[in-house]
Design goal:
heterodimer; A: alpha/beta; FAD/NAD(P)-binding domain; Enolase-like, domain 1; 5-stranded parallel β-sheet; 9 helices; 28% strand; globular; B: alpha+beta; 1 helix; 5 strands
């Protein structure tokens, strides 16, 4: 009898696992269950659709025939309501039981709603799925004035959507700059200026106390904690994700903001694995538990999980992720864990070029590059090598930095 | 991905119209080496050896949309 694998989730993590399983276990039974009504699409391009820059078709990655061609049993619009790890089975909302030998949870997250009055009003949007992108596009195309909330990597997509759709917007931030956990005010100002050029005005020391609605229940203003009122007929809220761990909370599977896995993507239950945004994984480079929502990381986790589902211990997840912002006429890229570390070094390296590198115990753990992405490979290499560069931190700021700009690694560092 | 001829070179041509049948790749989908090539060629009249994970005719979303031309 062939092995049976059930994958919950058809995002890039679940889909890359299905592809890997089919390649490396040709006779296996593979079932993919998703609560979405459509097959795998390119989640990092849906913002381009919402901006009105890209038609729908190129965003699809797998059509339904892909699953037939690869002998994968696909269940769309199917919500998993229970996981029975004692009996190796999941149950769906329509009462079906699906048995498995090995289970993969690639169940992602759900955008958090602001805990304020009228946060669910018409015209207030959250952004995660392709369906969200369709609703946002339709709404923003009819809008004149927008408000954006959430000063991070997801919030800036809403700002870019407003800019691309000629909606005058206020970007309400609680702190004194965008992505204050990874950027200094100097670096963030490059981003603020790019927003302003697109008609999106950052407002600092702000946020949302409540939304006001018209007689039809449509948003008409956001009021910040200072009492300042910002009229809007479109609002985008991106304050973070709640990871979809409800279905495992009644099981022995360990959770901690996400599903906890080891470096092989396995949970504390031997035949249950997890991959993608939802995982709290052991980062072998960082040496501690981490979480990462980048596309490349999720894809790699799906691949690694699949290999270990076939043969546990076959391959570790060892990855330096990166995430870019391509909305402006200069590139922005964050890599590794730029919000972590106990030290950092930053510099404006040329006009319009800025970088910051985060260090922990003298080792690079992440950073941000604005304008010049050339040093990306060098910084990722230093992370993988876990090289102590604490006494040469200023050299990391050299324009066009390469690893050869550092003093040669000592034997001790090479052993590390 | 198609079989590769040796010695071909790639350039990027900025494009504004994305046809529905285009293969569109976001910068974040590309490997580090291909990202370096895209960052180097975007907006410049330069060529580079054909990167491994881009085909002739693909469209890349970087700071603009760029069509991959490989000869």
């Amino acid at each position: 009898m062939s092995d049976s694998y059930v994958i919950v989730g058809d995002g890039i993590a679940g889909a890359s696992a299905a592809e890997t399983l089919r390649q490396e276990a040709p006779d296996a039974d593979i079932t993919v269950v998703t609560d979405e009504g459509e097959t795998l699409y390119n989640r990092i391009l849906i913002k381009e659709y919402a901006k009105g820059k890209l038609p729908e078709a190129p965003i699809s990655i797998h059509d339904e025939s892909w699953y037939d061609d690869h002998d994968v049993d696909l269940r769309l619009d199917t919500l998993v309501v229970d996981i029975d790890v004692e009996n190796d089975a999941i149950r769906t909302h329509d009462g079906e039981t699906l048995a498995y030998d090995t289970l993969l949870l690639a169940i992602g997250g759900t955008p958090q709603q602001l805990p304020v009055e009228n946060a669910d009003a018409d015209g207030v949007h959250h952004f995660w799925t392709f369906q969200d992108a369709r609703r946002i596009k339709e709404s923003v195309e009819d809008a004149d004035r927008g408000v954006v909330v959430g000063a991070g990597l997801l919030g800036i997509d809403f700002a870019a959507i407003c800019g691309a759709q000629d909606v005058e917007a206020k970007y309400l931030m609680r702190g004194d700059c965008w992505w204050r956990y990874a950027l200094s005010e100097e670096g963030a100002e490059v981003m603020h200026e790019a927003m302003r050029e697109r008609g999106v005005d950052p407002v600092f020391g702000s946020g949302v106390d409540h939304f006001e609605v018209d007689d039809d229940g449509h948003v008409e203003a956001a009021v910040d904690p200072n009492g300042d009122r910002y009229e809007c007929d479109f609002a985008g809220v991106a304050i973070g994700l709640d990871f979809n761990v409800e279905i495992v909370e009644e099981t022995p599977i360990e959770t901690d903001e996400g599903v906890v896995v080891d470096e092989y993507m396995r949970t504390n239950v031997d035949n249950v694995f997890a991959a993608g945004d939802v995982t709290q994984f052991h980062d072998v480079i960082l040496g501690e538990r981490a979480q990462n929502g980048a596309w490349g990381s999720a894809k790699e986790q799906g691949t690694i999980a699949a290999r270990n589902m076939i043969e546990h211990g076959s391959e570790r997840f060892e990855w330096v992720s990166s995430y870019s912002i391509t909305h402006f006429d200069f590139p922005f890229l964050s890599f590794g864990h730029p919000t972590l570390g106990d030290d950092s070094v930053e510099a404006t390296t040329a006009e319009g070029e800025w970088r910051r590198v985060a260090l922990k115990d003298g080792r690079v753990v992440g950073g941000v590059l604005i304008g010049d992405l050339t040093p990306q490979s060098a910084f990722k290499r230093l992370m993988r090598e876990q090289r102590d560069v604490g006494d040469q931190r200023e050299r990391l700021m050299k324009p066009g930095f390469a690893v050869d700009d550092l003093a040669p690694a000592t034997e001790q560092q090479r052993r590390n | 991905m198609s079989l590769r001829e040796q010695g071909r070179r790639t350039r990027l041509r900025r494009t504004g119209r994305i046809p529905p049948d285009a293969e569109v790749r976001h910068f974040d989908e590309l490997g580090d080496g291909t990202q370096a090539v895209v960052a180097e060629l975007a907006g410049r009249p330069l060529t580079a050896p054909e990167p491994r994970d881009l085909d002739d005719g693909d469209v890349v979303k970087f700071t603009e949309y760029y069509e991959v031309r490989t000869r």
